[in-house]
Amino acid sequence: MRWLFLLLIVLNVFYYVWHQQEAPLKAKEVAPLSLYKGSQQEIRLLRETGVSAPARRRDECLVVGGVPQREQLDALRQRLLTLDITATPITGQLPGADGFWLKVAPESERLLDQSVLSVLSKDFKDLKHKIILCEGIATAE
User: Fold this and answer.
1) Residue 3 C-alpha from the chain's centroid
2) 6 in a structural domain
3) HSE on the CB side for 55, CA within 13 Å?
4) Any idea what the Cα angle at residue 106 is, between residues 101 and 112, rounded to 5°?
5) pLDDT reported for residue 90
6) So what's the pLDDT on residue 53?
7) Do the beta carbons of residue 71 and residue 98 sit within 8 Å?
8) 89 part of a folded domain
């Protein structure tokens, strides 16, 4: 009985030492955030400061498409029209791009954000979008 008691004490000491090794380290002292801020006092949104997001140059256009068939392009144009996004078909090929494309009107570009593009890409398998120079684009207008 005495040996069993001594064995339990030794096992408890071993268990204590084992758990002390796995204990998390003490947290370091962290410097206050005010030291890191410097001259910047708070985070402000771009809209609050009056600065807009970086605007594209006036000679750049947003084009969507890359679909292999004209029928898919017409369906894409109809879908964009239901979203109040004006787009005109591009006649001819875009340099370095295959398929048929639509040029999005500048006033409609803000409506065609990343969330709308991701929904459209689920419905139109080969849908792509690019920002290109408007100079060499021939539209149906």
Assistant:
1) 67
2) no
3) 6
4) 65
5) 85
6) 46
7) no
8) yes
- CB-CB contact of 66 with 99 (8 Å): yes
Strands (DSSP E) contained in the chain are 60-67, 87-89, 100-104, 128-133
pTM given for the model: 0.55
For residue range 69-85, what is the model confidence (pLDDT) as tens digits? 889 889 989 998 988 88
Sign of the Cα torsion 96, 98, 103, 104 reads negative
- State yes or no: pLDDT of 65 exceeds 60: yes
Output the CA–CA distances (angstroms, integers) from residue 133 to 98, 103, 110, 138, in the order listed: 17, 11, 18, 12
Q: Residue 106, exposed/middle/buried by CB under 10 A (0-12, 13-18, 19+)?
A: middle
Task: Supply the CATH number for residue 80's domain.
Answer: 3.30.70.2030
Least confident of 31-45, 61-75, 76-90, 125-139: 31-45
